[in-house]
Task: structure prediction
Amino acid sequence: MEQARRSKRQRVTVDYAHLDTSGLADCIRVQYKKLARAVVNFVDQSQEEAFSVSTVGASELAAHVHSTGFGNPCVVRASDDARSALGIRVPKGELTVDRVAELVGRDRQVHTIDVSTQSEGPVYTLDELATYFASPSPRKPLLNVVSLDLANTLLHDMVSPPSLVRELDLVNKAWPPSQTPAPLVQLYALLSVEGCFMDFHVDFGGSSVWYHVLSGSKVFLLVPPTKFNLMAFEEWSSSDRQASIFFADRATGCQKLELTAGDTLMLPGGWPHCVVTPEDSLVLGGNFLTGYNLPLQLDIWQLEERLKVRSKFRFPFYKQLMWHTAAHYLAQLRPTTKVTAKKRLSSVSKWEKEGLVSLCACLQAWLLQSKDGSDLPSIYRNPTKLVKEMEKLLKKEGIVRSAVDSRTTTMPHPVLRPLSAERPVSQWPTLGEDDDCDEERVPEITDDGELDLSDEDDTDFLVDVISTKWSKRERAPAARKRPERRAVALSRPAKLKVVLALPRIPTSPPTKITMSSSSVRDRLLTNCGLDPRISTSKLRLKEDR
Ligand SMILES: O=C(O)CCC(=O)C(=O)O
Ligand SMILES: [Fe+2]
Result:
């Protein structure tokens, strides 16, 4: 009986309807409903203080981040003056998807993520997206928009990120205005319908994120970027079992964070995370690289290289930005007179200085690798001298250790289980009455004459679980609002250009990995000085970074 039942279960199902256009890899279905439920029901693991999420008052955020070097996620809860204290500006009145379409341009094309495959979905116009949002839940297909770039739109001029983000962002700090174009990834709108789930990922280039919920709610599961967790993440990202394994089962110290309207999250770079959307939500957010997180940012850049993440999914002009960053800090560190030297050195924090050691090593490697110097901005005539001078200044201060982030702590000896030992999502015991998605379904023919293999069209479970929780916490979730259905206005702001969104899709799309999991595993273990032939269940990895 059990045997027969199991044979009917599948880890993933294949969307045969799109096989010819997308290829097999893009058609792997993810059991997002079960994964989302696991996130919502997740019980936090014991935390190392260095890695726990801090709840801070809006007026204390900047001081907290500067005094801790932005090592842990910070959340500022909604309050009457939170936005103004953070320096966040949003349009007056309610911002609906329909209004976004009005302000950005109804014919503007947006990239979507198909939640059931975690890959690129159809391209919609904002007009189509507004209609999609106005349709009743559950929507089919389930689509998430996380990369609506607001640059050059009317909405852009009505919105500002937190002032701290503008202060930390290396593009603001170090990118010379004469060098165009600059990487513009600081301001996006995220439009997500009820039931959306974004599987574990690290934002591109190890960039940090600001994330302000305008309406609706979100549930994050955050994974501390310890050496162990990042190694497990790389292995999971490279595995052909990625779609069927809940990454949190392989990581340690995961934390759940629920956000409702008015809340703001500052997530430092390099933290793997996944996100559930329990109700239609509108979020403003963006990405930025900082001088506080250089070692981890560079680690993630290297991870993207190893995973062969396509340039379309990567932080734009990353190498150029790192050269400008080095030049910026060199100007800060370089003593001009004896009096100013001391002052200048103390204006650069210990985290930045440690990070600069990693940056120098990386720039040197890039110089050695580069055949044509194409990623080196032409304003740097003598890049070797630049790096050497920086190293000398840092050495003089006694900062010589390379690739070290002093905040990374020892976690209690996690055991790296072989991926094959992981129970696939499809074999989880049912978690609720409506849980039917582990059954392989007989394809049905839809009204459109298409094969329907969707097995996860009921998302109400999320709303139930979340609203029970909120009522317990006496924090009412924002009312579920649906944009009014109304006639599409024909007048469009004529001067608006259609600006293609910079892709900001997760660094490790499940479909594009070419290495076999066993070779990745071998290499990871070898990198850690471990013999890959030893059974991994016997290995204990020490956090020693
Ligand atoms: O809000 C979401 O659904 C995903 C947010 C996120 O992590 C991202 O866009 O990188
Ligand atoms: Fe993200």
Remarks:
- The chain is about 30% helix and 15% strand.
- Residues 1-27, 431-461, 463-521, 525-545 have pLDDT under 50 and may be disordered.
- The first strand starts at residue 54 and ends at 55.
- Residues 144, 146, 190, 192, 196, 198, 203, 218, 273, 275, 277, 283 surround 2-oxoglutaric acid (ligand 1) (CB under 6 Å).
